[in-house]
UniProtKB/TrEMBL annotation, chain A:
Coiled coil: none
Keywords for this protein: FAD, Flavoprotein, Oxidoreductase
Lineage of source species: Bacteria, Bacillati, Bacillota, Bacilli, Bacillales
Organism expressing this protein natively: Paenibacillus arenilitoris
Domain FAD-binding PCMH-type: 7-182
Transmembrane segments: none
Stated name of the protein: FAD binding domain-containing protein
Keyword check for Lyase: no
PROSITE patterns documented for this protein: FAD_PCMH
Pfam family name, one: CO_deh_flav_C
UniProtKB/TrEMBL annotation, chain B:
Stretches assigned to the 2Fe-2S ferredoxin-type domain: 12-88
SUPFAM superfamilies linked: 2Fe-2S ferredoxin-like, CO dehydrogenase ISP C-domain like
Keyword presence, Iron-sulfur: yes
Family annotation (Pfam families): Fer2, Fer2_2
GO molecular function, one term: 2 iron, 2 sulfur cluster binding
Signal peptide positions on this chain: none
Entry-linked InterPro entries: 2Fe-2S-bd, 2Fe-2S-bd_dom_sf, 2Fe-2S_ferredoxin-like_sf, 2Fe-2S_ferredoxin-type, 2Fe2S_fd_BS, Beta-grasp_dom_sf, Diverse_Oxidoreductases
UniProt protein name: (2Fe-2S)-binding protein
Species name: Paenibacillus arenilitoris
Length: 302, 167
């Protein structure tokens, strides 16, 4: 047990904004000396491990109005950034409409952590395990930027998320999951392919080595109408495999295509390795779990 | 920026209910609930171990839900109803504790208070849980000496005891 923060005498001030604009103003004023805090569960691990110093000011987001609910929007479900992971896990509509999201959340830590941790915190960490599932649903992020709200595709934000200054002062308000379009819902012959996998070193409460999500539709003949493939895990920034998706679309999901997809995932997925699992293992794992799901779908669609 | 009502200073007043008693505690708002319980209130049944929410030894109930006391900061506990293992046993040995005794659900006992609090949270939400729900509810509690067989049997016995008491 190492030296903890209490023993260092670090006692940051905690600020309690009531609106997104007020929270943004605090962050703007404090700069690097102020940090937004949602559940604080990831921050605590970083503080205790000495990866980052506890800042002089914590900006508590739990009291910011309107960020703790899951709302039905005109064209999508809006997950307030301060919604706890456990609330996401138990939300009936989210579970029914976007089951990969609840599958992913269920695999994060344990209920006791998920009662504090939030979906916004998981996304803001960039490498959160929920992000891979959200990518496969084509999620977008709604930010407060100081002069209003801005919507940004999750996939676009991830391209620059780890670059210095990419977050700036902006505050994540909600995650938007678009409802399936009318064509998807009307075409009853289309078969949905939807699966999320997290592979770690233990069955439960484990950091991920690989996360993978598949979401799409096959027509009655087994042709790929649409498909999204997303991969992440560990410290790898999750991403869509758009080149492979394009190559699959319009093709019959047969053994030849499955073999091609496996090879393309091995090429396109660039995981960060660590002392526990090298890149080759992670590539093969991601390719195997995705192709296994596609193979299962191909068998039941014919 | 409007200071005053929104700022929390170095020492602030934490008002909450712990095991049925109202408390007003002067504490830095970022101080962990674990240290408040153990060092300030002497409630040492809540154990300290990993400090990062991984082992479950410090499990408490906050408004009836399981939370790692090493993760919860004082300001997050304002106005909350907190129950520690001492609160679970306030009326004598709880049926969950009795089940752990009878089924050998402990050895060194260090993880046991956290285990029992997690089971209390589970049974508070799901009086008749499935095996999957039991596994998920205990996924944040590690035991490094008993093995999980006795713990699993204890949970089953606690469920059965509650079921019998209800009929």
């Amino acid at each position: 047990m190492g030296l903890n923060l209490r023993e260092t005498g670090s006692t940051p001030k905690v600020w309690h904004p009531r609106t997104a604009a007020e929270a943004w103003a605090y962050k703007r004023n404090f700069g690097p000396d102020g940090v937004y805090v949602a559940g604080g569960t990831l921050l605590r691990t970083q503080w205790e491990a000495g990866i980052v110093r506890m800042p002089a000011n914590l900006i508590d987001l739990s009291g910011v109005g309107g960020l703790s609910d899951i709302l039905i929007g005109e064209d999508g479900l809006l997950l307030g950034s301060q919604t706890t992971l456990q609330a996401c896990r138990m939300h009936a509509l989210l579970q029914r409409t976007f089951p990969m999201a609840t599958d992913a959340v269920r695999s994060i830590a344990a209920p006791s952590v998920r009662h504090l941790a939030t979906i916004g915190g998981n996304v803001a960490s960039v490498v959160g395990d929920a992000v891979t599932a959200l990518l496969a649903y084509d999620a977008s992020l709604i930010w407060h930027t100081g002069d209003g709200e801005r919507q940004e595709e999750l996939t676009d934000w991830l391209l620059t998320a780890f670059q210095p200054g990419s977050l700036n002062d902006r505050l994540l308000l909600s995650v938007k999951l678009p409802f399936p379009d009318e064509q998807d819902r009307a075409d009853s012959s289309a078969k949905r392919v939807s699966a999320y996998h997290k592979v770690g070193r233990r069955e439960a409460f484990t950091p991920s080595l690989v996360t993978a999500a598949v979401h799409g539709f096959l027509d009655a003949s087994g042709t790929v109408e649409s498909i999204r493939l997303a991969v992440g895990g560990g410290q790898t920034v999750p991403r869509r495999l758009e080149e492979a998706e394009r190559e699959m679309t319009g093709q019959t999901l047969d053994a030849k295509l499955l073999k091609h997809v496996h090879a393309r995932i091995m090429e396109l997925y660039e995981p960060r390795e660590d002392v526990f699992a090298d890149s080759a293992y992670r590539k093969r794992t991601a390719a195997n779990v995705i192709v296994a799901e596609l193979w299962r779908a191909s068998r039941t669609s014919t | 920026m409007s200071e005053g009502e929104t700022v929390k200073n170095e020492y602030d007043e934490l008002r909450c209910t712990i095991n049925g008693t109202d408390y007003s505690i002067a504490a830095p708002p970022s101080e962990r609930l674990l240290m408040i319980l153990r060092d300030r209130l002497g409630l040492t049944g809540t154990k300290r171990s990993c400090d990062i929410g991984r082992c479950g030894a410090c499990m408490v109930l906050i408004d009836g839900k399981s939370v790692n006391a090493c993760l919860a900061m004082a300001y997050q506990c304002g106005g909350k109803r907190i129950t520690t293992i001492e609160g679970v046993a306030a009326g004598g040995i709880d049926p969950i504790q009795q089940a752990f005794l009878e089924e050998g659900g402990f050895q060194c006992g260090y993880c046991t208070p956290g285990m029992i609090v997690s089971v209390a949270a589970l049974l508070g939400e799901h009086p008749d849980p499935t095996d999957d729900e039991i596994a998920e509810a205990l996924s944040g509690n590690l035991c490094r000496c008993t093995g999980y067989g006795g713990i699993w049997r204890a949970v089953k016995r606690a469920i059965e005891a509650r079921r019998s008491a209800a009929t």
